[in-house]
């Protein structure tokens, strides 16, 4: 289908619908005409979406349909309904969109951390560059473990949450640069590798994994999600497809910035685990099991709930509801 020719053929009807939608209908005939035009335009939009999922013509028609629908339905839904819809559809769909990028960020982090740790541990004198023997011994035997119990429960949880949420939000917000996320990934991965190599040199590598495992599973995955969202935002203007770069950046940015809201919650859960579980004198299988359950809940929310929302037509962006209504009317 020639999109320009199709738009030119139906433009007069779309313009009339837009005119009626911008003012309160004056008679029953106006309402009937607007309803008929709305149904026809919804069918037109469904056909356009099949040819070009994102296009300026389709977006303008989508906005016209949105205005017309408000004339039928009145004001938007109440806040409670909007909140439920956000957490049941928009957020999981946005998380689902970045699922594979998240996996690649995780793989890159593990590889970089592993290579860093192995290189430092196998290079004579490399560990010594990070401090004196006494300082490294204190880090491995005291500082690393005491970090989880030196502060009060509430203060420690709040500190961890605030710091991690800031890092995650920065990766999403500055992902547009295309450089900040790779830099952050490398920096964080190398930091893990250095810490692991120091603990290994002091014979405390087991403590490294044991103390990180309860909260670190969800904490690290949240950082991977943030990196995935940031990279997707960068890719939207690097390879916009049929959209203009400005249009692609605006659309994907609005959708993926919702991931930052979700990360605030996942990192809060991770901070609670770190503040209340890691420091406890419980068997390690219990503490690690609690962290694993927290991670599994987030994975189910992203892959299962998000997949269901995505297949239902939700993309996590602002006009998803309009496309859903359009498909229902057109179908």
TrEMBL record:
Keywords linked to the UniProt accession: Membrane, Transmembrane, Transmembrane helix
Record-linked Pfam families: SpoIIM (PF01944)
UniProt entry tagged with the keyword Ribosomal protein: no
Keyword Transmembrane helix found: yes
Domain of life per record: Bacteria
Transmembrane segments: 100-121, 165-185, 220-241, 253-272, 284-305
Listed name of the protein: Membrane protein SpoIIM required for sporulation
Taxonomic source organism: Curtobacterium salicis
Lineage of the organism: Bacteria, Bacillati, Actinomycetota, Actinomycetes, Micrococcales
């Amino acid at each position: 289908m020639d999109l320009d020719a199709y738009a030119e053929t139906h433009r007069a009807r779309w313009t009339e619908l837009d005119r009626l939608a911008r003012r309160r209908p004056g008679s029953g005939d106006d309402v009937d005409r607007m309803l008929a035009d709305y149904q026809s335009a919804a069918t037109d939009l469904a056909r356009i979406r099949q040819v070009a999922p994102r296009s300026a013509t389709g977006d303008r028609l989508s906005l016209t349909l949105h205005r017309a629908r408000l004339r039928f339905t009145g004001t938007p839904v109440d806040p409670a309904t909007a909140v439920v819809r956000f957490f049941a559809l928009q957020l999981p769909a946005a998380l689902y969109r970045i699922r594979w990028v998240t996996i690649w960020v995780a793989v890159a982090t593990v590889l970089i951390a592993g290579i860093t740790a192995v290189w430092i541990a196998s290079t004579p004198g490399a560990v010594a560059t990070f401090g004196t023997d006494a300082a490294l011994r204190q880090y491995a035997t005291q500082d690393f473990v005491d970090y989880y119990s030196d502060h009060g429960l509430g203060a420690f949880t709040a500190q961890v949450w605030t710091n991690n949420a800031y890092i995650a939000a920065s990766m999403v917000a500055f992902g547009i640069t295309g450089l900040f996320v790779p830099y952050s990934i490398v920096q964080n991965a190398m930091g893990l590798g250095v810490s692991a190599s120091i603990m290994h040199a002091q014979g405390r590598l087991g403590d490294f994994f044991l103390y990180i495992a309860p909260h670190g599973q969800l904490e690290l995955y949240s950082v991977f999600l943030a990196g995935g969202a940031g990279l997707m935002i960068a890719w939207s203007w690097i390879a916009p497809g049929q959209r203009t770069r400005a249009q692609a950046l605006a659309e994907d940015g609005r959708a993926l910035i919702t991931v930052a809201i979700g990360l605030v919650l996942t990192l809060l859960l991770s901070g609670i685990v770190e503040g209340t579980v890691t420091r406890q004198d419980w068997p390690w299988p219990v503490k690690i099991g609690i962290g694993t359950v927290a991670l599994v809940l987030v994975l189910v929310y992203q892959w299962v709930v998000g997949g269901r929302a995505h297949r239902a037509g939700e993309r996590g962006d602002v006009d998803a509801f309009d496309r859903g209504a359009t498909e229902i009317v057109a179908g």
